[in-house]
């Protein structure tokens, strides 16, 4: 599985338009999220992943990197190009 450290991801995020997939629950997402991120809770991913564009590279984020790692494994098996953001939104809160 491809992974990126949060600091490296955030530098890219500030310079480029990235496709960010946030797999936290809706309440977590509404409380704090990165601008432009798409919320697709991990619990619903199996039912709605086909809404995603297979031509895009997705940076997958959660609170700490555990749920996003599971989401990346699932999506990669379905043929999507994904990168797990290590540290997640916890790292963002600690900037």
Folded structure, characterized:
The chain is of the alpha/beta class and 95 residues long. The protein has one domain: Rhodanese-like domain (Oxidized Rhodanese, domain 1). Helix content is 43%, strand content 21%. Strands 1-5-4-2-3 form a five-stranded parallel β-sheet. The mean pLDDT is 97. It holds the Pfam family Rhodanese.
Question: For the CA atoms, what is the radius of gyration?
Answer: 12 Å
Number of domains: 1
Q: In sequence order, what are the helices and strands, one letter per element?
A: EHEHEHEHEH
Strand order of the largest sheet: 1-5-4-2-3
Helices, by number, come to 5
Provide the CATH superfamily: Rhodanese-like domain
Structural class designation = alpha/beta
Unreliable residue stretches: none
Ends apart, CA distance between termini = 25 Å
Approximately what portion of the residues adopt beta-strand conformation?
Answer: 15-25%
The CATH class assignment is: Alpha Beta
Oligomer: single chain
Main sheet properties: 5 strands, parallel
Rounded average pLDDT: 97
Number of strands: 5
Morphology:
globular
* Helical amount: 40-55%
Do you know the CATH architecture? 3-Layer(aba) Sandwich
CATH topology: Oxidized Rhodanese, domain 1
Keywords:
single chain; 95 residues; alpha/beta; Oxidized Rhodanese, domain 1; 5-stranded parallel sheet; 21% strand; Rhodanese-like_dom; Rhodanese-like_dom_sf; GlpE_sulfurtransferase; Rhodanese-like domain-containing protein
Ordered list of secondary-structure elements with their pairings:
Layout: E1 3-5, H1 6-15, E2 19-22, H2 26-31, E3 38-39, H3 42-48, E4 57-61, H4 66-77, E5 81-86, H5 88-93
Parallel strand pairs: 1-5, 2-3, 2-4, 4-5
């Amino acid at each position: 599985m491809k992974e990126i450290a949060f600091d490296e991801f955030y530098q890219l995020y500030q310079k480029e338009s990235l496709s960010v997939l946030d797999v936290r629950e809706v309440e977590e997402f509404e409380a704090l999220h990165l601008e432009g991120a798409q919320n697709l809770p991990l619990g619903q991913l199996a039912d709605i992943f086909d809404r995603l564009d297979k031509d895009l590279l997705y940076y997958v984020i959660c609170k700490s990197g555990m749920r996003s790692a599971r989401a990346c494994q699932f999506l990669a098996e379905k043929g999507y190009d994904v990168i797990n953001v290590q540290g997640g939104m916890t790292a963002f809160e600690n900037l």
